[in-house]
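Can you please make up a whole protein chain along with its C-alpha cells because I've never seen that pairing?
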Amino acid sequence: MKKIITMSLISSLSLASVLSDTKDNIFKQESNKAGQDTKALKNSWISPAFINMSYTKNTQNKISTDIKSIQIIWNQDIFRSGGIYYAIKYAKALGIYNLDLIKQQKLNLIKTAFTLKTQILRDKLLLKQNVLKLANLEINVKVTKDNYLAGNADISDMNNILVQRDTQKMTNLTLKQSIQNESKELAKLTNKKFEIKNFPLITKDEYIKQNIAIKTLNDKSKSDYTKAKITTASYLPKLTANLQANHSDYDSEIDSQDNIDNPWSAGLTLSIPLDINYKANIQSAKINYLKSKLDINDKKNELSQKYNEVIDNINILGEKIKIAKQIKRSYETLYNVVKEQFNAGLKTVYDVASLKNSLEIQNLEVEIQKYNITLQKIDLYFDVKE
C-alpha cells in the first residue's frame, strides 16, 4: 500500500471542476442565490415601512375639493431579549450551512465523474482481458474437437467447453453494454476531457477532521443552536418602536387658501407573549440542537468505519496485484520454455498462443487492480473539503 500523506499535499493537487459548463453554472447560481437568501434573512429583523398615498377629488354642488395625503407607518422591534442578535447569527450560520450543502453536492458529482471515468478505463481493460480468455476458450474448443474426433474425448467434454465459450461471449457482451452505460452517464455530467490522476491517500485523522460532511453537520449544529436561542427569545419581552407620520393637503374652490395638516405620532410598545406551548417549543428547539451534536459523533464513527473498510480493500487489492505478478512470472517462464519446444517441433501453435494470451491476461490483471485501488482512493478523496 502506498504511503499515506497529509492534507498539505492534497491542497497542491486541487482540482478544477470537471463538470460541464452548464452544471458548473447551475452550482454558481445556487451559491449566488444562497448568498442573497442569507443577506435577506440577516436583515429580516428590520421591519418594512409602509407608505400610503392617496388623492381624492370631490365635486358637490359644482364645487370641487382636492385632498392629497401621504402616510408613513413604521413599527420596528428594537429589543427582543437577545432575539435580534441571534437572528443575525442564525442567518450567517444557515448561509454557511447552505453553501456547504451546495459544495457537497458538487463534490459528489465530481466524484461520480471521476468514478465513472475510472470504471470505464478499468472495464475496457477487463474487456480486453475477457477477449483473451475467449480466445483461449476458442483454442480449447478446437483442441477438444480434434480430441473428440480422434476418440480421445467424449461428448460431455465437448459440451462443457462449448458452454464455457458461450458463457464467456455473453459476459463480454454484458461488459460492452456496461461500458456504454457508464459512458452515457459520464456524458450527462461533463463533456470535458480530464485525466485520472494518482490520488493521494490521506490519514484517518485528517479524513475525519477535514470531511465535508462533518463540516456541514458542524455548521448545521451552529444554526440549530442559534435557532434554539431565537425560539427562547420569542417568548421573552419585546420592545417595539411605533412611528406614524401624515401629510394632508386640502384644496377647495370655496377656500382660496390651502389647508395643510402634518400630524404625527411616536411611541413604544412592550409586549410579553403568553403561550401555553412555550415550554414544549423551547425544549423541542433545544432537543433539535442536541440531536445535531449527536449526528456529528455518529457521522464521525461512520466515517471511521468507512476509512477502515477502504484501507482493508486497498490492502486486499494490493495482495491481488502481488499474486497476479507471481502468476505472470510463472507464465513468462513457461511461455519461454514452450516457445523453444515449439521451435523444436515439440509443441503446437495452440500451446504458444494460449500461453501468450494467459501471460497478457495477468499483465492486464495488474492494471485492472490498480484501477480498483484508484476507485477506493477516489471514494475518500472527494469526501474531504479542499
About this structure: The beta strands are 50-60, 63-79, 238-252, 259-261, 264-271.
